[in-house]
Structure formats: structure tokens, C-alpha cells
Amino acid sequence: MSLSELRVFGRSGTPISPLTLGTMNFGEGSGASGSGLPGGAPTGADESIRIIQAALDAGITAVDTADVYSQGESEQVVGRALRGRRDDVFLATKFHGQMSPNPAHSGNSRRWIMRAVEGSLRRLQTDRIDLYQAHRPDYNTDVLETITALNDLIRQGKILYYGTSVFTPAQLVEAQWLATTNHLIPPVANQVPYSMLVRGNERDVLPIAQQYGLGVLAYGPLAGGWLSGDFVLDAGRAPTRTHSLPGRYDISGPASERKLLAADSLARLADKLELTLVELAVGFALSHPAISSVIIGPRSEEHLQAYLKAADTVLDESVLDLIDDLVPPGTNFVERDAGAVVPSLEYAELRRR
After folding, report:
1. Active-site residue 69, yes or no?
2. Would you say residue 231 has pLDDT above 90?
3. pTM score
4. Mean pLDDT, to the nearest integer, of 182-205?
5. Which of 71, 85, 163, 236 is paired with 322 by a 20 to 30 Å CA distance?
6. Cα(212)–Cα(235) distance, integer angstroms
7. E strands, 19-156, where?
8. What is the mean pLDDT of residues 124-153?
9. CA distance 176 to 174
10. 229 — pLDDT class (breaks 50, 70, 90)
């Protein structure tokens, strides 16, 4: 596999590169963005633009962002970086997250979608979005309202395709059924976390994606840093991102202890195979037949080069079997690794009379 070997993005028929550049780390700089909400990015605008352009020069053809990343600053940076190159890029962004202190400026309602898309188009400096994604399910909004609004945006030419992110199996099937029975254009994509440590989607989400011909963008091939090399038992140093997402890197408790042991074992396997852990991780994510493209999230040009090198990694069956032995298929060590916790698990009152 190499960046020059494009993959077909589900039933859309669109060819995209096996790696997609994720831009969550890109913005005007660190700290709050001025909206009263957290959302600073670790990589400033100028370096972010250099990374984006280097990725495109290397053969990456897809860029994924979201309006909520640094409260719009990531989209602004992407828009600046794509000047003169927009037509060569499969550009994806997302709506749902809260974009101001006003809670009405969020969600998957028609009212918010119609406003959110205009903001994204303006910040991205484009007349259309290739893939517009619901960043998370909205349990307060009927799915039919959401997909009807997105269908209308396709008819208006403001978006070309729409998709979802971390929808449950039932929600994926419901969206397809509602679109078909109401003569609407159905979603063509789903975005999911997928890595050697986060394999729960192998149980049902990825098979459903294959059944309906969905393009799948897999994010988090390094499992949010757990496969960065920091989580090895003899590293002698603390994880580098503990300060920003403390719950994610808490290694107390039996589930996280098992996850730590698995991360350590995978790091040792990579050493035995004379691969970097990044190469092993990206090669694994690219090997699943349901995955159209793997989203990478570099914070520096050095990180980008490591990811680009990993795109050439091809793992044979014996290596994939060894990974299965260390982390069985369908395994998620902790519930939050699924990307979102469904209300029936998060709120005790929904489980009790």
C-alpha cells in the first residue's frame, strides 16, 4: 500500500488516498478561541498550513476537519491552505458541536444545520463541501429531520455527500431505512475510531458499513496516544497528553491496566518486527477491508513524515494473527474508547424503574 494507490470511498465511487489528513490539532494557536468555550489547538496557523501543503504534496488527497475544532479556527486554516488546490482535495467537515456559549448553536436540527453549513463554507473559502458529517448522534433530534436537511443541502449544491460519525449500528441502519423509504439520498459514510486497542467496531459497525456500501474514515490509529510509544512499561516517563484529557490516560483500574499491558505488548511486537509502533498501528488500520481511509492527526511536520512512512506498511496474515492474539477482535478496553457513550449506559436513570 502507498499513497499513490487510491481507494474507492464506498458506493460514492470517489477515489481518495489511504490516509486522510485530520486537522483537529490545527488552529491559530494554543488556548481558548474567544468563544468562552475550550478549543485551542497545539499547532499554530503557519505551521498548520505547512503541514497541510506538505501532506498534499506527498499524495494525500483527503482532508477532514470540523467546525468545532478550535471553534472554527481549524476550518479557517484549512481554507487558507487549500487556496489554488481546492479542486484536488476531497474536503470533509462536521457539524454538531457547540459553536458559542449559546447551547442552541449546536446539534443536528434543521435549524442549526442550515446555519452551521454557511459558517463552514465561509471559513473554508469554498462553494461546496465534499462530505458533511454529523459529528455525533443527537438524541434530541429526530433522525429524519437531520437527513432531510442534509438531503436539501445536496439538492442546493452546498454539499456533495453526507455521513455520520460514531453512530451506533441501530442508528446507521435507521438512517439508511429512513432515507430509502422517504425517497431521500442516504448517507454514504461513517467515521469511527479504529486501532489495535479499539476494535469494538469490528463486531457490527464495520460489517454494516460493508453491507450498505458506506465509505469509512477511521480515526485514532494511535488510540489517542496509547500507541505512540509512551505507554510501555519500561519507558520511565509519563504520557505526554495527560494534562489535556486526563480521563483518557488514567491507567488506574483493571480495564485500563489491561489496556496498558496490551499497549506494551504491541510495542514489543513492533520492535520484534523491526517496525515503528506508528507503522504497525497504521498498517493494521489500513488492513481492514471496510476501511476506506485512515485519518492521521499530526501536530508537527515530523509527525507527518512518520505517518507518511507508515502508509507503505503492509502486514501479512501472520502478523495480523499475532495482533489478534494480543488484542482479540471486537475488543474495547473501556467504553469511552467507542467515541461516544450512549445515554442508556451513561445515565443510570435510564436503566432503572
Report:
1. yes
2. no
3. 0.91
4. 98
5. 236
6. 43
7. 19-22, 62-64, 90-95, 129-134
8. 98
9. 5
10. confident
Q: How far is CA 320 from CA 44, 281, 323, in A?
A: 37, 11, 5
Residue 47 DSSP SS3: helix
Q: What is the DSSP string of 132-197?
A: EEESS--TTS-HHHHHHHHHHHHHHTSEEEEEEES--HHHHHHHHHHHHHTT-PPP-EEEEE-SSS
- Give the integer Cα–Cα distance in Å for 273 and 311: 16
Element (H, E) at 50: helix 45-58
pLDDT in tens, 10-61: 999 999 999 999 999 998 753 333 333 445 568 999 999 999 999 999 999 9
According to DSSP, the β-strands at 7-9 and 293-296 are unpaired
Secondary structure element (H or E) that encloses residue 124, with its range: helix 110-124
**The pLDDT value given to residue 113:** 98
Closest CA to 226 of 270, 256, 191, 192: 256
Write out the H or E segment, with its range, that includes residue 254: helix 254-272
Among the listed residues 69, 132, 194, 249, the single catalytic one is 69
